[in-house]
Amino acid sequence: MSEHIVIVGNGMASLRLVEELLKRAMPNALRITVIGEEAEPAYNRVLLSSRLAGEVEADGISLRSHGWYAARGVTLITGTKVTAIDRTISAVALSSGESIGYDRLVLATGSDPVRLPLPGADIDRVVTFRDTKDVERMEALPAGSRTIVIGGGLLGIEAAWGLKRRGMKVTLIHVLDRLMERQLDVNGARQLEKAILGNDIEVILQATSKRVESVGEASILHLNQNMKSGETNLQLPFDLLVMAVGIRPRTELARAAGLDVNRGIIVSPTLATSDPLIFAIGECSESAGVVPGLVEPAYQQAEALSRTLCGDPATYEPKPVATNLKVSGVPVFSCGRFETEAGDEVICLTDPDLGIYRKLLVSDGRLAGCVLVGDTADGLFYLDLLTSARALDRFRADLAFGRAWCEAA
Ligand SMILES: Cc1cc2nc3c(=O)[nH]c(=O)nc-3n(C[C@H](O)[C@H](O)[C@H](O)COP(=O)(O)OP(=O)(O)OC[C@H]3O[C@@H](n4cnc5c(N)ncnc54)[C@H](O)[C@@H]3O)c2cc1C
């Protein structure tokens, strides 16, 4: 008798799990069913930014077709939401009214984009940046439209860049006094801001959005900018407003089923939830207090879980990950720590005219973090030094100059 594995969600983590299971499972050992709420089969969500910027075609982000799943004996149900888990009978209820039994269940439900609860913002021309429907909405705008992006993190900057590439007028608003504050120190953020302004995107920092006012076809965002010199009230008319202010793990199914949930669905090193028959991977999961917000950890989890589900128990442990900004001409790379702590050695290399900034933190003779703006060619070299915790002594003096110098040392 084959074991029935049911996967909720058909995003990037889910697809990678199916691929890994197909690689490892003994013939006829598993029967796999995947249920996804979105209309189309899994696509490369990471490339939504490149699609918005016109750097890849709409079909260039597809990963696998319905036919691919069918040819491998995997049942794929799209356009259907799982509405409840009944652990007493090991079954999930679907929005279609159907119920599907499982032997083991995997939750790969990803995240929801956060929408700021601004008065008046519950209108069609206020969107988020998470899925193909959001991007289609942006793509439908005529060139020259006035757009506002709220959120100066990675996604907000990529949305602003994509809209600019499509010929829109773009204003990027951020609540703090610097962009990408989770990945960049003050100097790196200033360098990035200069590069963005150079691309004709207006940037308003230290600005708190207050409300949206719509009169007929016109909408206006009201905001306050709080500078040292005082507070200014601003009013910005817009045709489309994009909120890119963060994500929230989708935990509602797990919570309703009585599983342990914190920010994400809490999982053990084997990726099991508080019910040993139910597992969670990707952005909905929380492993050792960490909720992954990038695709690489989700892939590592999928690989480990596939081993466990195929009878060869494996564990997953969160590792340092790197962030890359996908804005052509403005390369940014960040990994590990970027704020100095007591006892750190700080190595900085700047060439303002070339827009290059490089900051490396060394702690106990090992790399603890790096920020690269303008030239990121050595990013993976530094990430490798960070994850391997290699001693730097032999090439410490050449560290700032990258792989080629270090290898020659
Ligand atoms: C514009 C953009 C750019 C990004 N750029 C990068 C990048 O450069 N590098 C990087 O590493 N990461 C990037 N990310 C993040 C990356 O896309 C995510 O980390 C990754 O997609 C997470 O995969 P996931 O499978 O956990 O979640 P998702 O891809 O969100 O998939 C979850 C799926 O589950 C479905 N679902 C949820 N609940 C249910 C339910 N009850 N029933 C049925 N289906 C359900 C959802 O509809 C969704 O399709 C980016 C994200 C965006 C939006």
Explain the layout of strands and helices.
Layout: E1 3-8, H1 12-24, E2 30-35, H2 48-52, H3 66-71, E3 75-77, E4 82-86, E5 91-94, E6 99-101, E7 104-107, E8 111-113, E9 126-128, H4 132-139, E10 146-150, H5 154-165, E11 169-173, H6 186-197, E12 202-204, E13 207-215, E14 218-227, E15 230-238, E16 240-243, E17 247-249, H7 252-256, E18 265-267, E19 278-280, E20 285-287, H8 295-309, E21 322-325, E22 332-336, E23 345-351, E24 356-363, E25 366-373, H9 379-388, H10 403-408
Parallel strand pairs: 1-2, 1-7, 2-3, 7-19, 9-16, 10-11, 10-16, 11-12, 18-20
Antiparallel strand pairs: 4-5, 5-6, 8-17, 13-14, 14-15, 21-22, 22-25, 23-24, 24-25
This protein binds flavin-adenine dinucleotide.
Residues 8-14, 35-38, 45-46, 48-49, 81-82, 108-111, 129-130, 155, 250, 253, 282-283, 293-296, 298, 324, 326 line the site of flavin-adenine dinucleotide (FAD).
Please explain how this structure is put together.
This protein has 409 residues and is an alpha/beta fold. Helices cover 22% and strands 31% of the residues. It is built from 10 helices and 25 strands. It has helices at residues 12-24, 48-52, 66-71, 132-139, 154-165, 186-197, 252-256, 295-309, 379-388, 403-408, and strands at 3-8, 30-35, 75-77, 82-86, 91-94, 99-101, 104-107, 111-113, 126-128, 146-150, 169-173, 202-204, 207-215, 218-227, 230-238, 240-243, 247-249, 265-267, 278-280, 285-287, 322-325, 332-336, 345-351, 356-363, 366-373. It has a 5-stranded parallel sheet. It has a 5-stranded parallel sheet with strand order 9-16-10-11-12. Helix 1 (12-24) packs parallel to helix 8 (295-309). It starts with a strand and ends with a helix. The mean pLDDT is 95. The chain binds flavin-adenine dinucleotide. Flavin-adenine dinucleotide binds next to helix 1, helix 2 and helix 8.
